[in-house]
Structures are given as structure tokens and as C-alpha cells.
Amino acid sequence: MRTARQSRAMLRPMLLGSVACTSIAAAFTHPARAQVTDINTGLPTAQAVHPLAASPSVGGVTLDMISVAGSGSGRGLVVDSSGSQVGYLARRLRSSTKTDTPLIDTPQAISVVTEAQIRDQNVQSIGEALRYVPGVAIAQGEGHRDEILIRGQRTTADFFVNGIRDDARYFRDLYNTQRIEVLKGPNAMIFGRGGGGGVVNRVLKEADGVPIREVLVQGGQFGNKRMAVDLGDRVSDSAFFRLNGVFEDTGTYRDFIDIRRYGVNPTMTFLLGPQTTLRLSYEFFSDNRIADRGIPSQFGRPWRYRENTSTLFGAPLISNGSVDAHIGNAQLDHVFESGVVMRSQTRIADYAKYHQNAYPNSPVSADETAFVMRGYGSQTDRTNYFNQTDFTYKFNTGPLAHTVVAGLELGFQEGIDFRRDFIWNSTGTRNLLVNPFAPTTTEGATLRNLASGRNNTYRLGVFSAFAQDQIEIDEHLQFIVGARFDRFDFQSRDRRPDTATGLPAQPNSRIDNLVSPRVGVVVKPLPNLAFYGSYSVSFLPSAGDQFRVLDPTTALSAPERFENAEIGVKYEITPALILTAALFNLDRDNQPIPSSTEAGFSAGPGKTNTRGAEIGIAGYATDWWQISGGYAYTEPRIVADIDDDGDVIRAGNLVGGVPLNTFSLWNKFDIGERFSVGVGYLYQDASFASSDNTVRLPSFSRFDAGVFYAFSESMRAQVNIENLFDRRYVISAHNNNNILPGAPRTVRFQLIARF
């Protein structure tokens, strides 16, 4: 098998020549006197709003018809150039159905974090951006990757970019992100394997022909320094370009934890004819940081977490981590004379990932004199090749209006998983006893591939075919019916010699042929009110979302299965404000449960049931008040006893890391023509660090704030304060002894300038 490192050498010339963003911005119009504000900056555009034929107004906000030209100033609604986003509200999206569908007509709970909200909250990562999304909990990710729980389902791999899988383990940046979509419940019909609790899809900025010259400068506490640029224009009437870039060199509230990352993302759009568009994109992104796994526990609770908000329990000199990602994308759109619309997107991504970390591996002793520290080094290089091609056709059969989508996905992934344990110089073993009152060690270690380590290679071939029909009976009743066939051909090899024979281990493989159905109904008694119900199923092959090596036993294991039933309601209070609610029941079979003691290992397999309710709100409450947030009740429970290396995770236990109740609400108030303030509130219920329910994480609440001032139509400054009242709390945990304290009061400054 060709290694991922060899693949990179072959791929880079191709990556430089193949790449894509999203779609071309269309005109968006608005009558009335409200100022149209640019979604990228929150600044008034250098364009005035001219009235067209009047359209109905709800709550004083008229959105349906907008025309942009000339110049103007003042405050008002923040819209994007396509009309799909209005401030904090996304009105339409493609990712849920592969068709451009209004949010109210989609039988699924969906939350969208728009670029306006990303800018206003001054967030820089996936985890920060999703804190105000109901039903999502932010996991620790072992200090080196994005990891979240959606509806109680933990994932490191259900991340997508423009609808294509981005499943490597790393921290993503938002410098080139137009919006973040969280689609809840099983999504196999559209996205394929996994995604049982939901998926996160980033929609990237595109070369849309709109001139933009923007610089964003950030700074703040703990040595935060960051600059981003966004440059775009027309090369000709049929060729557009855009360049996004970022550089960050920052410390954090945690001692010794420094981050240095940078990225560049050039994109081009070519209009090859009146019915054909080609989009090319290439991204290079590099992230270097010290991994941080938090603090240990004692007697079933985090040990002195109020005193250890900044204290590193680790070995910073040997806990470095890095990822270099080369990602190319090419997208071809074509409209045939018959009216069939084709979209074909190819994505090639190469990830070189290595990290080392030291972490607490035991509670603090009863006399508070010691805890056990362990560590490891891990190389997880991966190369992904994907092509998605789908065809959309609209037609009528009698009174029924159909929107049919059918297509194929082809994929191939290969990589390595090479993990070696720390052997501490002073002990000659994996265990190092450390004083918890002096928990940052300079102790050295060597790396050794023990039985607890890994040295695996893998490859996965994917063939998928899908079809879906959106059926509109009349203006009051719609159905969606679809199914996806996936064939997974997975092979892995443990490169270590067989312990019994001393000979090279034989590869193990498994082929799964799976069908994932999706059914939904939308009932609309009023144009702005929709009730819906849905049923969906998805699967995850037994190798898991990060490709565990198969042995003769696990090669026979059935895939994980997710089955979700959901009912809900969506109410457009005004065209710029939507209120949603959902009830769901999610069953998961053959699930590996994260070990309560040893990081990177699992207990099980097991079965869980998650029941819950969600309420979300987003948009303009008035023309001067924006709002985003919601409430979630999530109850994920273990259905049957599970063996965890001799311990038992009992039936009825709550799944670790998931608070029963969460509430979030972010508000932005425009005061006068140039001045705005933001106020946010987060509440998270108590939860357990792991599924054995022996270590309890306390509940917490915090306030966030922002102050914004537009000096002119081309410059805006803002100050954001996270944790305004400087509360001490725990934000997340990876297991019982990797518990991360939340950030203290943190101040960030941001200046956005356009030229």
C-alpha cells in the first residue's frame, strides 16, 4: 500500500491545479428605507436601496424584494448578496436536500451560524462558533482536534466542507467560512456514513465577482494576535478570483499553551457559458500548538478546578502537535437544455498530522500528594479522494410537483495510525508520579510501540448511489422520500509482528452493503408555519469514524446503526425571524463507548437511546435587535450493561459529556447609526465526565458581551468580552481525569477595514 506520505509527494502538483468554492452570488433586493449592511463586516455597504414594487411587511420588516445600487449609510438589516442569509438567519440552504430549499420546508432541525454572527461574536474556531447552537456540546478533543457531541453522539469525523467529507482530526479555522450549518439527526441520505447525531457543514467563501478588499486585525489577552485578508474581484466578465488568508500567533489562558497557525485559500470562478460554471479552489492550512488535556479528578469531581484554571497538568516540552493540510476542490455546474441541473464536485485532501501529549491518567491521591501522568505520540496521516455528482430535475405529474435528485459518490481514503507510548526517563515505565501542586513537568521520555500502541495502515473504498424526491401536493402539504446505497470496502493491517508467530500480521477486511432511507412530511396550514415529521437511518462501519484496525473478531462485527424519529414545528414570526422546535428519539446500536480511564480506547460495544427536545430562534426581532440561541434537553442513556476493562458501565447511566439541559441566547442591539452592543448568556447543566458516571462536572453559566462602532462605511471596530463576570467553571472533559477548565474573563479586539 502506498503510504499517505508518498501520496502527498504525488498529490501536491495536482492540488495546485484543482480546487473549488461555492456558487455565484445573485442579486438580492429590498424596498423601504432600511439600510443594507454587508454581511462580511457589519458595515453599511457603499450602495443605496431603491424601492421596487412593494411586498408585504411583517413586523415592520420587508425582505422579499430588494434592489441594491448607489451609496448610502445608516443602520439596518444585514443581508448577503444571494439573499440566503439575513443577519443571523439563514432562510435557504442546499446541504440538507441537495436542492435550494427554504429552511421552513425542510423536515429536519437545522441551526446555522452565519458569517454575521461569527464576526459579531469574534469566534475563531468550530468549538467557539457552536456554543450558541442548541443540542450541541463541545468536547475536549484531547487538545489537538475538533470534537463535538450532537444530540448526545460524540464525533471527530462528521465535519464537511461544501457537502464533502473533511474527517481528519485537526482544529479547523474560520477565516474562509461563509457559514456553518448544523444538520441534526442521521444524515446518511445526503452525507453518507456516520452523522448519527448530526453533521457540521462549512460553506466556504467563493469567487463571486463582487469586488472586495478587506483586512481584519485582532488582538487581545494572553498574547492573542491574528490577521486575516479577503481580496476578490473580476478578472473579466467571465472570470472571478478571491483570496482568503490568515495568520495567527497566540497564547491562551492555559499556561504554556501557544498556537501558531496560518492558511491561504485562493479560488477562481469561470463562466464557461450561459449554462456552465467551473469553480476551482486550493487551500493550504497549517496548525501548530501544544496539546492540553486538562486536570484530573478527586473523589468524583474535578480537583481544585477554580484554582487551576490556567495550570497545565502535562509536559509542554514534549507535547507539541502539528497538522499541514493541502486541499483541492473542483466543481462543475451545468444546466442541460432539458432542464436537468448537474453538479459534479471533486475534492482531494492530504493531511499530515502528528502530535504528542502528556496527560493525567489517574485521580489525585486522597492525601493530595500525587497523580499518574502518561503520554504518547501519534501520527495520523490521511489522504482523501472524493467525487460527488448529482442531477436535479423538476417536473409535474398531474397536480404533484416533483424535485428529483439522483447521483453518485465515489471515494477512496488511505492513511496510517501510528501511536507510541511515552516511557519516562526517570521511571522506565509508562507511569510518572507527579505532585498535583507542581503538575507541569520537564521530565523527558522516549517513544516505544507497546501493546497499548498502534502501528496500522488502512484503506477504504466507497461507492454510493442515492435518489430523492421532494413532492409538493399543494401549498399545504409536502413529502420527501429518498434512499442511499453505500458499499464500504475497508482493509487494515497491523504492521507489528503477530505476537504468537512473530510473522507479519495478515490484513483484515470487511465489506458492508448498506441502505439508508429517509422519509419526511411537511404540513403548512399557513405559508409561515410548518409542522413536520421525519424518519431516517444511518450506519457507521465497524472500523469507526477514525478507522480502527480490524482483527479477526472485529472484522465480523456489524456496523453501528442510528435510527431517528423526529417531529417539529417551524414558525417564521416575520420574514427575518424564525422560531423552531423539535422532539426526537434516537437509537444507536453496536456503539463503542469511550473508556472512562484510558484515553483513546473504548468499551463496548453497547446500545444507547437518546430522547430530547430543542427550541431555536434566529434573526431580527426588530430592525435594531438581532437574536440567536435556544434551549435543548438531551437525555442519552446506556441501554444495557457494558464491560469497561473489568469495570461495568451500568444500564441507565447517562452518556458522558452531555448536559441534560442547555440554554444559550446572543443578542445584538443597534443604538444609533454607528454604535451597537451585544449581550450573550450561556447555561450548561451538570454532566458526567464519562459514561461510568463516577465523576460529575458542575453546571455553569456565563455572560458574554460585545461593543461595536462603525467609524465609516469602510471601517468597524469591536471589543468582545467572554465570561464577563469572570466565573470559574469546567467547560468539557475527555474522560474522568482529562477535565478542561473554562476560560476566565477574556477580552478581544477586532478592527475590520475595507479599501
TrEMBL record:
Entry similarity comment: Belongs to the TonB-dependent receptor family.
InterPro entries per record: Beta-barrel_TonB, Beta-barrel_TonB_sf, Plug_dom, Plug_dom_sf, TonB-dep_rcpt-like, TonB_rcpt_CS, TonB_sidphr_rcpt
Domain TonB-dependent receptor-like beta-barrel span(s) in chain numbering: 272-724
Motif TonB C-terminal box: chain residues: 738-755
Name listed for the protein in its UniProt record: TonB-dependent siderophore receptor
Primary residence: membrane
Membrane-spanning segments: none
Organism per entry: Methylorubrum extorquens (Methylobacterium dichloromethanicum)
PANTHER family: FERRICHROME IRON RECEPTOR-RELATED, FERRICHROME OUTER MEMBRANE TRANSPORTER_PHAGE RECEPTOR
Keywords, alphabetical: Cell outer membrane, Ion transport, Iron, Iron transport, Membrane, Receptor, Signal, TonB box, Transmembrane, Transmembrane beta strand, Transport
